[in-house]
Design goal:
The complex is a heterodimer.
Chain A lengths: L1 E6 L1 E3 L6 E3 L2 E3 L5 E3 L1 H15 L5 E8 L4 H8 L5 E6 L8 H15 L3 E5 L10 H8 L3 E12 L2 E8 L2 E8 L2 E5 L11 H6 L5 E4 L12 H4 L23 H14 L5
Parallel strand pairs in A: 1-6, 1-8, 6-7, 7-13, 8-12, 9-12
Antiparallel strand pairs in A: 2-5, 3-4, 9-10, 10-11
Chain B lengths: L16 H28 L6 H7 L17 H14 L1 H21 L2 H12 L5 E4 L15 E4 L3 E12 L6 E8 L2 E8 L5 E2 L14 E12 L3 E6 L2 H35 L1 E2 L2 E2 L4 H29 L5 H25 L11 H13 L4 H13 L6
Parallel strand pairs in B: 1-4, 2-4
Antiparallel strand pairs in B: 2-3, 3-7, 4-5, 5-8, 6-7, 9-10
Helix pairs in contact in B: 1-3, 3-4, 3-6, 4-5, 4-6, 6-7, 6-8, 6-9, 7-8, 8-9, 8-10
The chains are: A alpha/beta, B alpha+beta.
Bound molecules: flavin-adenine dinucleotide (FAD).
């Protein structure tokens, strides 16, 4: 089986994000593999290690810079990496991103597709499902249990009040939730091996798309502005005797904060 | 609060992609699993032995060696691994130094083909633990006078003598032991459980409490003739292992210094006295300026030393300079950080004092600070001042 894991480059969850002129400032920010995508890679590697003829591919859509993240994902033990590199990537909405990935998937070929349930930067949670729709594949999202037997996938997902069990044939798309598995650390040998493994960088042209299909041109949604969260006002300590402080507290909750 | 690694001169830009990934991988393992548990290990005087399996799975043992299941990384990558281990505790870095530089390296360099096949793959996986016995109760800085002897018999060698302060001795499956055969220093491999070989642990240490330190005792201990390292002859052999380990230490202690600096800085920015964060006072700022500058120098020394070593050009005296400088500065920084933390700095919620205690050992082992001064003095002036 060709198992393709979709991987997005996202800012490190510990990075301090600053906004300048409505745009996110990227200098000094470290970029990592989207943590939810790691569950997909782990699941793919487990299938491969359980035996049989399997290959694990990493597929990333991003700017040239995303090559590093693709390689970090490969270091977990994947066989081959693909990056669709285009400067328009940050301006693509979920629809367009899915369009690019679907085109690349058609080019590479696939028997099974894993991706994270969402990216930790824009939290849109749409790409995996959209890819499945565009390729007319079955899909299950926010999966926390996965089994593959005789070309059939059995997955579980948490729903209100219990677990839902879904079965479907491969190929299909699974979007992965925390708890699905325990993603490994890359071994240093695998890190060293990445540079010796096949890594392909596609242009839009290579996958049959053009500049009109992507970025602001190809997207339904345009992000017009980013704003940092409002700074929290500092707290106030009310000092004095209990009778007075209680009164003052009630007064300020009613008149200033207007919450009671 | 999350650790922020100081990189004042953007040295990360000078490291390769795979070196950064190796460093970050070890950093994640350390933060996820070892940082939360280390203070208790130190207090209890126990070594987190699962480090053997964890670093083995990562291929971090013998990482800069070729073949036999080793990853074959750059020496710079090996240095960065040590930095991340020692950021948590010098004990973890000691474990790795002894396994990689003092046990695997001599077998890899001087072992027979059969010895390499027999031990190295298991050592790379962390399934076979090694130790290195050079120091003796009466011979520390001057190992040339060692009293441990090997005597040739028909079937092998009989070893007599004792070794002192041996890291991982009690838990080691195999000891690389240096002894005199007909007056000449040779290396021998002694397996755990061999008759006449015992390795009791030395207790009640104030330093490296999360590391096992032992005494090795050999009483008519007979080993088969295949257990001599065929190509290790003379004091040069153990000294070249020490050069490897000292190189790793020079990197390692940067980690300890970075941890102390970061901890003290975060504390000083939040701790209010006299109506201001203590970081806002000039006296404290002088300390931070000093620490940041010294850490940056340590990083630059190691970066260049790593480049030289990767190119096969590093000399043992260059390694001495880095070991000497970096350990002394790390020790100073740990003490300064401890001071900045005030009373909070004496409890195990903070790490500076633990690092300071550990670094006292690092200052002494692998050639004391003074001995490295003499090595440099000799190299620079041309005069020997050892005796
Ligand atoms: C925690 C720990 C782990 C260790 N692990 C190992 C190990 O795994 N394997 C191993 O073989 N050894 C190990 N050692 C031993 C270590 O290498 C020795 O302690 C070190 O070489 C110093 O020897 P010594 O303690 O006998 O001190 P000494 O040599 O007695 O030195 C005492 C003092 O005299 C100074 N001095 C000595 N000679 C001179 C001189 N010529 N001029 C000026 N000053 C001098 C020294 O600098 C020092 O300050 C370990 C030590 C410690 C503390």
């Amino acid at each position: 089986m060709k198992i393709v894991c979709l991987v997005k480059e996202v800012p490190d969850s510990e990075a301090k994000i600053t906004v300048e002129n409505g745009k996110i400032k990227e200098t000094g920010v470290k970029f990592i593999v989207n943590p939810y995508d790691e569950y997909g890679i782990e699941e793919a590697l487990k299938i491969k290690e359980a035996g049989g003829e399997h290959q694990v591919f990493i597929l990333t859509f991003g700017t040239e810079r995303a090559k590093k993240v693709m390689e970090s994902a490969m270091a977990l033990g994947a066989d081959e990496g693909f990056l669709v590199a285009d400067g328009s990537a940050p301006d693509c909405d979920s629809h367009t991103t899915a369009k690019v990935l679907a085109a690349a998937l058609n080019k590479i070929g696939f028997d099974m597709i894993f991706c994270g349930k969402q990216a930790i930067d824009d939290d849109s949670s749409q790409v995996g499902v959209r890819v499945a729709e565009m390729l007319s594949l079955g899909h299950a999202s926010v999966v926390n249990k996965f089994e593959l037997t005789d070309g059939k996938v059995k997955v579980e997902r948490q729903i209100q009040g219990g677990q839902e069990v879904i079965e479907m044939p491969v190929p299909c798309v699974i979007t992965c939730q925390k708890g699905l598995n325990d993603p490994r650390y890359p071994s240093l040998k695998n890190i060293m091996a990445v540079k010796k493994k096949p890594r392909t960088v596609f242009t839009l042209d290579d996958i049959g798309l053009s500049a009109d299909d992507v970025g602001v041109n190809g997207s339904f949604v345009e992000v017009t502005k980013f704003e940092p969260p409002l700074e929290k006002a500092p707290g106030r300590v009310i000092e004095g005797e209990p009778e007075d402080t209680a009164k003052e507290l009630i007064r300020s909750l009613r008149e200033e904060a207007k919450v009671i | 609060m999350a650790f922020k690694a100081i990189d004042y001169y953007n040295i990360d830009e000078l490291l390769g992609d795979s070196e950064l990934l190796i460093r970050d991988t070890v950093r994640s393992l350390m933060e996820d699993k070892y940082q939360p548990a280390i203070a208790k290990h130190f207090n209890d005087g126990t070594c987190p032995l699962e480090i053997a399996k964890d670093l083995g799975e990562l291929n971090a043992f013998g990482v800069n060696l070729e073949g036999y299941g080793c990853a074959g990384s750059s020496d710079t990558a090996y240095g960065l691994i040590n930095q991340e281990l020692e950021r948590v505790d010098s004990a973890l870095r000691s474990f790795s130094s002894v396994q990689t530089s003092l046990s695997m390296y001599p077998i890899h360099r001087w072992g027979s083909g059969e010895q390499k096949e027999r031990y190295l793959p298991g050592m790379a996986k962390g399934e076979i633990i090694g130790c290195f016995g050079l120091t003796e109760p009466d011979h520390g800085s001057d190992p040339s006078g060692m009293k441990t002897t090997a005597q040739k018999t028909d079937s092998g060698y009989i070893i007599n003598g004792s070794k002192m302060w041996i890291t991982n001795g009690t838990i080691a499956d195999i000891a690389v032991v240096w002894a005199k055969l007909d007056g000449e220093i040779r290396g021998f491999l002694v397996e755990k459980g061999t008759d006449g070989y015992t390795a009791p642990e030395i207790k009640n240490k104030f330093s490296l409490r999360a590391s096992v330190t032992s005494e090795l005792s050999f009483l008519d201990c007979e080993i088969p003739k295949e257990n001599i390292l065929p190509d290790a002859v003379g004091l040069k052999a153990p000294l070249s292992c020490l050069t490897q380990a000292r190189y790793g230490i020079a990197w390692g202690v940067i980690g300890a210094a970075m941890a102390c600096f970061d901890e003290a800085l975060q504390y000083a920015q939040e701790r209010i006295q006299f109506g201001k964060p203590i970081a806002a006072f000039q006296l404290q700022q002088e300390k931070f300026a000093y620490m940041a500058t010294e850490i940056t120098k340590m990083q630059l020394l190691c970066l260049r030393l790593g480049q030289l070593k990767d190119a096969g050009k590093a000399t043992h005296t260059q390694v001495s300079m880095a070991k000497r400088n970096n350990v002394a500065e790390a020790l100073k920084i740990a003490g300064m950080a401890r001071g900045i933390l005030g009373a909070a700095g004496i409890v195990d919620e903070y790490s500076a004092m633990r690092h300071a205690c550990n670094l006292e050992s690092v200052y002494t082992y692998e050639g004391t600070h003074d001995i490295h001064t003499l090595i440099l003095g000799h190299d620079i002036t041309g005069f020997k001042a050892y005796r």
